[in-house]
Amino acid sequence: EIVMTQSPATLSVSPGERATLSCRASQSVGSNLAWYQQKPGQAPRLLMYGASTRATGIPARFSGSGSGTEFTLTISSLQSEDFAVYYCQQYNNWPPWTFGQGTKVEF
Amino acid sequence: EVQLLESGGGLVQPGGSLRLSCEGSGFAFRTYAMAWVRQAPGEGLEWVSVISGSGTTTDYADSVKGRFTVSRDHSKNTLFLQMNSLRAEDTAVYYCAKGVRPVIAQNLFDSWGQGTLVTVSS
Lengths: 107, 122
Fold this sequence. Notes:
The structure holds two protein chains of two kinds. By secondary structure, chain A is mainly beta. Helix content of chain A is 0%, strand content 48%. Chain B contains no helices and eleven strands. Chain B has strands at residues 3-7, 10-12, 18-25, 34-39, 45-51, 58-60, 68-73, 78-83, 92-99, 109-112, 116-120.
């Protein structure tokens, strides 16, 4: 099973600032890496897939990079609606599909 | 617009059973693999089960293998999860999620329902 590790657990930022979230896989997943955003009481929403492709309707301030075992999600200028928990997920080696433990972006 | 609506959650005693449903609309249901993902209170996401678009291929997390069964009814555009021998650690919000291709291999889940809460407690 591939273990996904996210850092930091919590990221404290102010609106307008840049946020950088990291995700590491225990073995290579190629570019088969997705990012999800989850707000309290809501379902996860797909942000990014293929490590760097934005899902439909996702603003350009979100960008993803990386391949193999190291990945980054960057939010260039945080908006109030971006405060949430972000999960990375690998879909290269299955089963199981595995998620990171999440990074909470807070004000 | 893709919509997924889960139902069937509730309070059940340890050892009991529950059947979750997820009705899909706004897309060609039989064309896509579907999955169940759960989230225990205050915790992260855990993949539970997946079924191919045809329904012929399924897979399960080790934590539920032998106790849970996934199925789908194309005439009703509905995904099911039969949960037997429930344990306290199965307590979670259960989400259904739509894949992006019919096979389960390297599938990605692009749309999620709002979830249904399952509580296993005496």
